């Protein structure tokens, strides 16, 4: 919030964030106070610049740990691997998605949608 208060709500767009209401709709106008008071949420936009990459694998667990791809594949060349904040980067996320879905008993199929956020489970 300090950055938004100092620079205004334009800070969010310039850093690849968007504001949504409780239903996921993007409002056309809002203030920093609307965000501070919990009426709106801030999320990073999907796409190639997203810090989690293009794919995020979510599964229920008490620690909110998940797997994700990365916009920085060069990090896999380093021996030190603790660049995420508790979650796990996946080097070949598309391969993992195909493997998981091929071995599931659901009617799920992998879907690549560019910059769209889309669940792979039906």
Protein model, in words:
This protein has 122 residues and is of the alpha+beta class. 21% of the residues lie in helices and 11% in strands. It has 4 helices and 5 strands; from the N terminus they run H-H-E-H-E-E-E-E-H. Strands 3-4-5 form a 3-stranded mixed sheet, with no helix packed on it. The longest helix is centred in the last third of the chain and has 10 residues, at 93-102. The mean pLDDT is 79.
Series of H and E elements: HHEHEEEEH
Number of extended strands: 5
Helical residue percent? 10-25%
The chain-level structural class is alpha+beta
Q: What is the average of the pLDDT values?
A: 79
Largest sheet: 3 strands, mixed
* Radius of gyration, taken over Cα atoms and rounded to an integer in Å: 17 Å
Unreliable runs: none
Task: Give the CA-based shape.
Answer: globular
Topology record:
Elements: H1 2-7, H2 10-14, E1 17-20, H3 32-36, E2 41-44, E3 56-57, E4 67-68, E5 88-89, H4 93-102
Parallel strand pairs: 4-5
Antiparallel strand pairs: 1-2, 3-4
TL;DR?
It contains four helices and five strands, in the order ααβαββββα.
